Amino acid sequence: MSIHRYQRNFGYFDYQDIFKLFDTMVTPVLCYGAEIWGYEFSEQIESVQTSFCKSFLGLFRTVNDSMALGDCGRYPLCTTYFSKCISYWCRLIQMPNHRYPRNCYLMLKAHDDMGRVNWASNVRNLLYKYGFGFVWISQDVGDITMFLYQFKQRIIDCCKQTWHSDVDTSAKCIHYKQFKTILNVERYITCSLPFHMRKAMAKFRCSNHKLSIEVGRHDGIQRALRICPYCLIRTNQEVLEDEYHAFFHCKLYDDIRLIYLPLICVPTSLWTPFIELWVQIITKRSTQFPYIFTIC
Predict the structure, then answer these.
(1) CA-closest candidate to residue 71, choices 194, 168, 204, 170
(2) For every one of its 296 residues, what pLDDT tens digit does the chain have, with 9 covering 90 and above?
(3) N or C end: fewer C-beta atoms under 10 angstroms in the chain?
(4) Cα(268)–Cα(21) distance, integer angstroms
(5) What is the distance between the alpha carbons of residues 153 and 194, in angstroms, rounded to a whole number?
């Protein structure tokens, strides 16, 4: 809350500064003591980061979490607290036998071998989950630094697969998945756009706008019936009001379209040119056409 209060009084942080603050001020608090409890996924902790990303982008809380994390290029915090838990286990198995923590661990492992569920059982399950069961069997990791790097990289790879699956299967991401295929930070976030322009682009990308295609979904209207009210009244045409229609065809935005859309982008009935335009704007021209996204 102090970060948001500071921004209201003194202006908004850019991407690098605000997430550096998050990683140095918030993440250590969230992951405190993860050596003990960090063997299981925590929705409560993950929700803090997703809410922070949505606040930074100016999105509503109802926006799909995968879209907020995807545009900010953030991995789930489980990559941190899982790694801390396994790091502590690595220290235990290499401690001398006269150390009390080592003796406590040996007792927990003996109970686990007898079928009792405890901290050692959960660590074992975590290692097996990510394909490192052989390490538990041998009770040896070799070089700790190299093992922890491989373990964390395995978690990141699994998080990427989960993110791709969520985007591909979510009904909210039908528009988003057409142009977002990699979990990395987007250029429009890092190019120091004013907050209102970054917010407008994020809302359009993440379907957090007021077009009928999105409003109708909340109202339970069938997709084919989410028509453009302006075109229905002015031209008596029943046209689906989606992102493509608003971008290229709707007469309501003709004046804005003539000013901000490049001349090479010719409206067609195909979806592909729209996706190519998105890629062009995001990768090369993020600072030239942001205003057009404020139409929604």
Answers:
(1) 204
(2) 566 666 666 567 788 888 998 999 999 999 999 999 999 999 999 999 999 999 999 898 989 999 999 999 999 999 999 999 999 999 999 999 999 999 999 999 999 999 999 999 999 999 999 999 999 999 999 899 999 999 999 999 999 999 999 999 998 888 888 888 889 998 888 887 788 888 888 998 888 888 888 888 778 888 888 888 888 888 888 888 888 888 778 888 888 877 776 654 555 555 555 556 655 555 544 444 544 444 44
(3) N
(4) 45
(5) 34
Query: Angle at which helices 119-129 and 78-93 pack, to 10 degrees?
Result: 120
Per the DSSP assignment, residues forming a β-bridge with 72 are: 185
HSE-CB at 165 with a 13 A cutoff on CA atoms is: 6
Q: Is 1 exposed, middle or buried (0-12, 13-18, 19+ CB in 10 A)?
A: exposed
Q: What does the alpha-carbon distance between residue 274 and residue 283 come to, in Å, rounded to a whole number?
A: 14
Residues 135, 161: Cα–Cα separation, whole Å:
24
**Which distant-in-sequence residues (6+ apart) come within 8 Å of 142 by Cβ?**
none
Query: Which two structure tokens, joined as six digits, stand for 227?
Result: 């028509």
- Per DSSP, the residues of 73-114 read T---THHHHHHHHHHHHHHHHTS-TTSHHHHHHHHHHHHHHT
Pick the closest to residue 190 from 3, 49, 57 (CA basis). Answer: 57
